[in-house]
């Protein structure tokens, strides 16, 4: 029976490869199968035609994948141990905000979408007002469905306004352009005389 060992998640032993202890009796060279890959490690067949660099990369990636899986398992165990679940912090996304919060959402959506870097603007607003004013809880996930709807409609409205503005410009400075052939021919005639 192997004693159960608890390892801290920051333990350096997690970074080491697992050690294989050789059997002191030795391994029988003649196996029951005459030839094949059965007596070799499972990835030997995969790495047979690899160059040494490719083999090292393959093993490094395999070790990274195994460490990632082990980390995910530890996190899952940790969450179960702490009793944290996937419960919604805000009580569901079908909750509707007050009218004042909807106005804040509309103004914030317009400000964010007009910014040169919308993601940075959203983070700045969250940092500046997220903790101080509960109306900005939609940036943390509350009223998620309503926030998505308002943001999409504001984006659509801004695009329509931009298209209307571009269409109303027309030809710009060429709006008063008229036929000037008569004037040009009169000037040429006076220049000839």
Characterization of this structure:
There is one protein chain. This protein is an all-alpha fold and 193 residues long. The chain has six helices and no strands. It has helices at residues 44-47, 52-82, 99-114, 118-129, 144-169, 181-192. The chain is elongated, with a radius of gyration of 35 Å. The N and C termini lie far apart (121 Å).
Concise overview:
By secondary structure, this protein is mostly helical. It has helices at 44-47, 52-82, 99-114, 118-129, 144-169, 181-192. The longest helix is centred in the middle third of the chain and has 31 residues, at 52-82.
Could you list some keywords that capture this structure?
193 residues; mainly alpha; 52% helix
Which structural class is indicated by helix and strand composition?
A: mainly alpha
Approximate helicity band: 40-55%
Q: Unreliable runs, pLDDT <50, ≥5 residues?
A: none
Oligomer: single chain
Strand and helix map with partners:
Blueprint: H1 44-47, H2 52-82, H3 99-114, H4 118-129, H5 144-169, H6 181-192
